[in-house]
Design goal:
- This protein is of the alpha/beta class and 341 residues long.
- It is built from eleven helices and 13 strands.
- A six-stranded parallel β-sheet has the order 10-9-11-12-8-13, sandwiched between helices. A four-stranded antiparallel β-sheet has the order 2-3-5-4, covered by helices on one side. The chain has a three-stranded antiparallel β-sheet with strand order 1-6-7.
Length: 341
């Protein structure tokens, strides 16, 4: 099955605690070189995030620092080494994800013994790449996508709501669990008037759908996507095109749902057919509807809370996985909205 929680086998690296120092020993020196990164930049990233000091001594890494921070850094390094053992590379984003998950595993007080990889990693396998949640909220969201027929992902831009939903859809499609993928979003301009666009209907709506094409291109080989679209096994269409349809045996995603009206949202949700799963994503702070028009996302959130088979996953600025500055920008706007300056 393409989407799975994997339990790690025992690893050859060993850790020994000596007061404020933990020694980690790694069996494969070539993998240790990859773990450290060029000019030890990977170690520097872990040091900067946790406040520890890491020294390499032969096939050992010495991690020095305060107890919780030292345990966190050691857990991250072990997890990244295990990733290399499986033949997968690591980059700055993978290290960032491991650090975020390690914080969630430790708890707010940092008192828990860290074993963030011991419970098994959640992987989404697609034709082009394997995707892993990078924050605790992302992991809970992916689990909700697999467990519920209707899942909502609500939070700011850059938190992976649409990206992970499309990844799960492609994974289920590749394994034959659904027959097609249907991706939709409201054709609403983001605060500007574009006027009349040239071309046929597809050419007119494609600019609104481009983020969905971008996600699909990440997960499917280049020549496969146009073929699947031509065969209508993958559909990308404005929300208005959903009226009157019943979507059976499909994985259906509504993106930018904050720009759907209440009537459009009800229309979309009632398209769900047998054997289908539906995901609705949106950001309540980026509503582009005319003044006085209620967002269908807000309405659905209010009406469907507690309904069996429906899940709600929430993201904050802490879950942003784009450039670190994006998280700080979102946090600043949140403080301003709350009147905190």
């Amino acid at each position: 099955m393409p989407v799975s929680a994997l339990s790690d086998p025992p690893r050859p690296d060993r850790g020994q605690d000596h007061g404020n120092e933990t020694l980690l020993e790694f069996a494969d020196n070539r993998l240790l070189i990859d773990l450290c990164g060029e000019f030890d930049r990977n170690l520097a990233q872990v040091e900067h995030a946790t406040g520890v000091h890491i020294l390499r001594r032969g096939n050992q890494l010495s991690v020095m620092g305060e107890g919780p921070a030292m345990a966190q850094a050691a857990a991250v390094l072990r997890g990244l080494y295990a990733r290399l053992e499986k033949g997968r590379g690591i980059d700055a984003g993978d290290i960032d994800g491991a650090l975020r998950l390690s914080v969630a595993a430790a708890g707010v007080d940092g008192g828990a013994q860290l074993d963030m990889f011991g419970a098994g990693r959640l992987e989404i396998r697609t034709r082009r790449k394997t995707v892993e949640p990078r924050t605790a909220a992302q992991r809970a969201y992916v689990e909700a996508l697999l467990a519920h027929e209707l899942a909502f992902g609500i939070g700011p831009a850059g938190t992976g709501k649409t990206y992970l939903a499309v990844a799960v859809g492609v994974s289920l499609f590749a394994s034959g669990q659904v027959d097609r993928i249907v991706l939709s979003r409201p054709a609403v301009e983001a605060g500007e008037r574009l006027g009349f666009l040239p071309g046929d209907m597809k050419e007119k709506v494609d600019p609104y759908m481009q983020p969905l094409y971008d996600a699909l291109n990440d997960f499917l080989p280049g020549k496969m996507l146009p073929k699947l679209i031509e065969e209508k096994r993958i559909e990308i269409a404005p929300l208005a095109f959903m009226r009157g349809r019943t979507l059976s045996n499909a994985f259906v995603v509504l993106d930018e749902a904050q720009n759907a009206t209440s009537m459009q949202m009800k229309m979309f949700l009632t398209r769900l057919g047998e054997g289908s799963r539906m995901v609705v994503t949106g950001d309540r702070t980026q509503v582009d509807l005319p003044r006085g028009v209620v967002s269908g996302l807000a309405d659905a959130e209010r009406i469907l809370q507690g309904v069996a088979g429906v899940s709600f996953s929430y993201f904050t600025a802490r879950d942003v996985v784009r450039h670190p500055l994006v998280a700080r920008i979102i946090a600043a706007y949140e403080r301003d909205d709350a009147g905190l300056g």
